[in-house]
Amino acid sequence: MSSNRATSVEYATREFERQAPAGSELPHLITADHEGQPLLDAFGGLRADIESHVARVGGVLLRGFQVPAVEDFQQFAAAFGHPLLSYEFASTPRSAVSAGIYTSTEYPAHQHIPLHNEQAYTREWPMKIWFHCVTAAPEGGETPIADSRAIYRRMPAGIRERFEPGMLYVRNYGDFDVPWQQVFGTDDRAEVEAFCRRAGIRWEWKPDGELRTTQLCQGMETHPVTGERVWFNQGHLFHVSNLQPEVRESLEELLDPEDMPRNVFFADGSPIDDAIFDEVRDVLAEETVIFPWQSGDVLMLDNMLVAHARTPFKGPRKVVVAMAEGHGNLANDAL
């Protein structure tokens, strides 16, 4: 991230440190008026300011407020007026904490989770996502973010053109990926097929009883409110180049490309060269904003305007997530 610069801004006697590309305003910081101010008590006076900055900047960090329990965070997220969403058609392991509240992705602490917009590998996604840092890790564990509009603008025109028709995601559930029973929240094949039919997902039950799904999804999207174009996919996470080299090598010795646990192809089904996603990852790195969590922080993002990630960490860390305001392009069969 050679173009990033460290910035330090004074807000209400608290220093907010971050690394960000020049010109970035992410995240807009709102701090408590006084020590111990309950977030729920402050909500009425803050709502308009929060919504305004989420709509323009893409994300708001609320710091220094008292959030006594996860239930308070749940009430805060729900207070914006949309029912909290369940985590359907999951791509990573999570656990439900309470209604509409989930753990952040349960990958091992030493692993990095790349930037992504939540559920951009589908044709339905939440417009809003909240993160609450219950316990900040003593080392690492940040949630980096990036402006999806800036990513789109910085992305080479040739790559945008190649992905304009969409991306074809192929998933093989089972030993090497999340089991389909966990992904779909049922062990009833008929329920899985009904979900796939509604969501425009092709499915195939393989001879061993496992499931393969194929879905054509967007590579980029237009924000329904701002009208801005955003880079909006998880191709770099699903592509085989995201695997550790030794894992990829061993799987490719055993499996054909369409049988890999997950993979992504051009819209016509042709393979995507690793070099393309090398360029994509370089762009994501250039647009990354990173700041240390403080226990009690709440981060609210427009999920189309801002992507998020997770850095490796040591020690205890607890971050919980809520999502709301479902949106999608299921009606667009021309993808």
State the main characteristics.
335 residues, alpha+beta, Double-stranded beta-helix, 2 domains, seven-stranded mixed beta sheet, four-stranded antiparallel beta sheet, 9 helices, 20 strands, 25% helix, 31% strand, TauD-like_sf, 2-oxoglutarate-dependent dioxygenase activity, TauD/TfdA-like, antibiotic biosynthesis
Q: Characterize the largest beta sheet: strand count, sense, and whether it forms a barrel.
A: 7 strands, mixed
Strand order of the largest sheet: 3-4-17-8-20-6-5
Overall structural class, as computed from helix and strand content, comes to alpha+beta
Count of distinct strands? 20
How much beta, percentage-wise? 25-35%
Please indicate the count of domains. 2
CATH architecture title of the largest domain = 4-Layer Sandwich
Give the SSE order as H and E letters: EEEHEHEEEEEEHHEHHEEEEHHEHEEEE
Number of helices: 9
Give the C-level CATH assignment of the largest domain. Alpha Beta
Helix coverage percent: 25-40%
**In terms of per-residue confidence, which ranges show pLDDT below 50 for 5 or more consecutive residues?**
1-14
**What's the rounded overall pLDDT mean?**
90
Evaluate the radius of gyration.
Answer: 20 Å
The rough form would be described as globular
The CATH homology group name of the largest domain: Clavaminate synthase-like
Q: How far apart lie the N and C ends?
A: 33 Å
**What is the CATH topology assignment of the largest domain?**
Double-stranded beta-helix
Protein name: Alpha-ketoglutarate-dependent taurine dioxygenase
Organism: Chromohalobacter marismortui
Cofactor: Fe(2+)
Pfam families: TauD
